[in-house]
Amino acid sequence: MTRGQRKRRDDDTEVRSAFVGILAIVVAFGLIALSTALFKHSFTSTESLTLRSDRAGLLMSKGAMVKLRGVEIGRVGEVSEVAGGAQLRLDIDSKYLSTIPANVAADIVPTTVFGNKYVELVPPAQPGPAIAAGSVVTGQHVTVEVNNTFESLVNLLNGVEPRQINAALTSLASSLQDNGAQAGQFIDLLNTYLGEINPQLPLINADITQGVGVAGQYADLAPNLVRLAGNGTTISDTLVANRASLDALLVSFSRLADKTGTLAKSNEKNLAASLTALDPTTKLLAKYSPEFPCLLEGLAISKDMANKAFGAAPGVQPGINGYIGLLPSQEPYQNPRDLPEINAKNGPGCYGLPNVTVGKIPHPTFDSGGPDPYAGDIPGGGSAGTKGGLGPVYTKQFLGVLFGLGNFA
Predict the structure, then answer these.
(1) How open is the CA angle 67-69-71, to the nearest 5 degrees?
(2) Do the Cβ atoms of 101 and 92 come closer than 8 Å?
(3) What is the DSSP code (8-state) at residue 111?
(4) Domain boundaries, the chain
(5) 398 pLDDT exceeds 80?
(6) Are β-strands 117-122 and 105-110 bridged in parallel, bridged antiparallel, or unpaired?
């Protein structure tokens, strides 16, 4: 091999080496770019959701994970501040969007105690239909950072003097010394109480919510209550000013009570006998008490009818208005047919009162409690007749006059 050929071979080797080096660099950069794109999900089709919360917390940044039931389904695309809190754009993988219910909530939680935060979507107990792209999700909880806890503790320690803390801790240690058993029992008892109270927290919360409305009503009534208290003060002043008259009134009441007691004691047998005698009457009145309302209402209505019959109603001719007829004499008294009987068994009843429709209400007999033995038609319908009364024919004529008198005008 000549020197020229060897030189050309060396040049070709250098060119190939340079080409391979450049190609390796390009491939390396390509792999880095591909890895970065894959990490950023640049080749993944996404849909955006908006998360609004009162705050985003520390260590929440673009690219944070979005999880649903522990599975990563997207990334945080943007974190921005808006009026009243923070707003996060969630880039959700399109294939997972249909698995998110529309009534989903969100928590912003850290991966570890000091780690970065991520968004955890929390589905409700009764999920709704699938959420639509561009919907707004409400943040319900943001984990408090340890930094904030330390900051609050430092502020507390800065506001309290070490001497006072030392005195408080010394007093606490002295109180707990030789009282460990009692302290343990107290903690167990407190735990029992809290265990019983926890299930009632929703009811307590509802009571507190209703208490707001009650407090508002009391606030509206506050002027009246203050006025009532002022009136009470005036009444108290009046009683004090008339103390002598009040004392005399109480003394007179005391004397009246003494005399009443003496009177009742001297007549206790008579009072007992009177009450005993009134017992059957009160029982009878109680039995027939359902009739009283309709009877009184019927009397009120009959007053209007009487006003019309006697010309006292407006627009009615003055004088007695009615139909008048002559009746034969009543049948003579017969014994034992016309003897009075107390044998009614009908019981309480209104018999059509207060609004009686003529001809619609049957007329029972009250001496036997049974059907009318003298049933017969009367003007306007119905039946009439009582044992030992006017008799069937005369009763029909007499009641015809009454019906004509009551139905006039």
Answers:
(1) 50
(2) no
(3) S
(4) 1-39, 46-148, 289-409
(5) no
(6) antiparallel
